[in-house]
Amino acid sequence: MLTSRCSVDIGHVKALAVRRSRQEPPSTVAVAEAITGLGLSKDVHSDPLSLRQILLVGQGAYEDLGLPPLTLRENILLDFDTSSLSSGTVLRVGQDVLLWLTFQCEACGHLNSHHDGLSKVIGTRRGVLARVVNGGLIRAGDAVRNLGQLLPRWSDDWRKRVRMVLDAVPSTDVIEYKQLARVAGVPSSYCRVFPRVTREFGKTYFNKAVSVQSKTPKSRWLGASLFELPLSDHASVETLLLPRPPKNVNPSSLRGKNMTTVAQNNLKEQIVSILSQGDMKQTQVLQLAGAKVLFTKGRMLKGDTTPEAEPKPYPTVACALPDDYDSWLS
Questions:
Q1: Which of 76, 155, 182, 254 sits in a 20 to 30 Å window from 290, CA-based?
Q2: What CA–CA distances, in Å, run from 188 to 17, 56, 178, 183?
Q3: Number of domains the chain contains
Q4: 179 Ramachandran zone, left/alpha/beta (phi>0; psi -120 to 50)
């Protein structure tokens, strides 16, 4: 689902913060670790099945409204306006971190407890929410680059997000209200209106969402597949992290120039060793020329003419996922 290939520098990180528990306010940190598919390390909003892993806010809202630091409870403060950033956009922060923008954060009444009347004046500058596509360290001063519309879009309207989640629920499964709220990125307090809202969507939708007390024998769906991006998308995003060759240099002329025969043989041995392990996981991360590459076991390269009786162990290459990714899906 690649809809745009633009790449533009748009600003820098001004400050970082994490909130370690719901009982304490966010605290400023010098360095934040973004974890692929999870969020920021030690932050209460880290969740593999959430659209709200990270909140990014532009400093203009603070300057124009005279707000005290961290009033908006952001994780990343930026020196540019976030209100025009669209869902599905991928931002590269620093050298390694890729963030998938999901939707604009709503101006809820909780803001008023931190600054009287704030929810009525903040408008579209509440900030934008994101998921971590590729992890790494983030520091104040890191450059931020807009890589374009690369990944699926989510609506800013919570009702439409709920419907999008229900559309993805298999016909053999149901999703409980609390899990529906979690995956759609809405407060759990919205669960009380789900019966009415899903009934308005139609009978098919109404039957897909149930309360925790439901006696239906259908399996409970967690929604993990919503965040399993296509391999082609992973590969395309991964290439955007790699350094580009110098201008006026033919890339083909560089091929093989910086790797000795010994290094090439060692690399081949690594690949053969990993692919020959009978008990290996479905996915395996390998360090190739300074880049993390994900091998997926049991895939065939497009155009491979090898007879089906003698398949080659060619893997599909994609963006690296954390070692424990498989455990999230169980």
A1: 76
A2: 24, 22, 6, 11
A3: 3
A4: alpha
